[in-house]
Design a protein that fits this description.
17 helices; 0% strand; globular
């Protein structure tokens, strides 16, 4: 009989791969030598993705005054990094769906994910992050719970047990997952992120939002998504199976130079921002 780890590995292999175009987009956007034309040329290799990116760019989320009808002006106006992340989110959401075979409500799950995406971006803005990098925080929040999608779709019995046990609010979700399944959604998330060749910033967001890392180049993504996830639970935006509000360590607040009051202030516009961002789920 196969162990849980082997079954999870098999399940990850059965998850769809991202388009090779996405990997090329990442390469081009991350190269200092790339121009707007270089990124436009790569995205246009995928006509469906091109249409989605233009639609997103023209949405209320970005609030541009004039309609953008082609890719190159969108890249020039919003920057390579923002367009890269719009393309990444489009591709990611096109590949991932929750099976309706457990007690986890798909609509509430995605509402929570979108809430964490928006909250991560708002917190990053409060931290004074370069506006060109804010969309990376949005994507980090959007995909943070991808490991739960695999548990839901491939281990429905275990997912239902985890959801039932979580109602008691006695254990954190990762402790429950380890007890019931043997692995956590964070560990599974990192494995999926590696399959999809995501950058470290996103891997830290997927794999360390319950035990945030506080040292290293990508640590801030881990910390910001951790805070966003907890506050979205407090604000009851959607639901991803986790009832327990987690303690945020003093060291984390010190590293971010934030406190709870500052976070609530940063998230005061979260409702309106989520409404604008709903297009990402369509």
């Amino acid at each position: 009989m196969k162990g849980v780890v082997d079954k999870v590995k098999d399940s990850i292999e059965r998850m769809p791969s991202l388009s090779p175009v996405i990997h090329k987009i990442n390469e081009v956007a991350n190269s200092a030598k790339s121009s707007a034309q270089d990124l436009t040329d790569v995205i246009q290799l995928d006509p469906v993705l091109t249409a989605k990116v233009i639609r997103m760019v023209n949405s209320a989320y970005f609030g541009l005054q004039n309609e953008v009808k082609s890719l190159k002006p969108a890249v020039i106006m919003l920057g390579l990094n923002t367009i890269k992340n719009v393309a990444l989110s489009s591709a990611f959401l096109g590949k991932v769906s929750l099976n309706k075979n457990t007690k986890l409500n798909g609509e509430e799950f995605w509402k929570h994910s979108l809430g964490v995406a928006v909250a991560s971006k708002l917190i990053a803005r409060k931290l004074g992050v370069d506006p060109k990098l804010l969309e990376e925080y949005f994507i980090a929040g959007l995909i943070h719970d991808i490991g739960k999608v695999l548990i839901n779709n491939f281990f429905p019995e275990e997912m239902n047990t985890i959801l039932e046990e979580a109602l008691r609010k006695e254990e954190g979700i990762t402790d429950l997952e380890r007890r019931v399944l043997g692995l956590t959604h964070e560990e599974i998330g990192i494995a999926i992120g590696k399959k999809w060749r995501f950058a470290n910033n996103l891997l830290y967001s997927m794999g360390r939002h319950h035990q945030p890392v506080m040292q290293g180049d990508s640590a801030v993504f881990s910390m910001v998504v951790s805070v966003a996830d907890n506050f979205v639970k407090i604000l009851k935006v959607g639901f991803s199976g986790n009832y327990k509000i987690e303690h945020m360590p003093d060291e984390l607040w010190k590293h971010l130079n934030l406190n709870e009051e500052a976070v609530f202030d940063a998230l005061s516009s979260i409702g309106g921002e989520i409404e604008k961002a709903v297009l990402f789920l369509k």
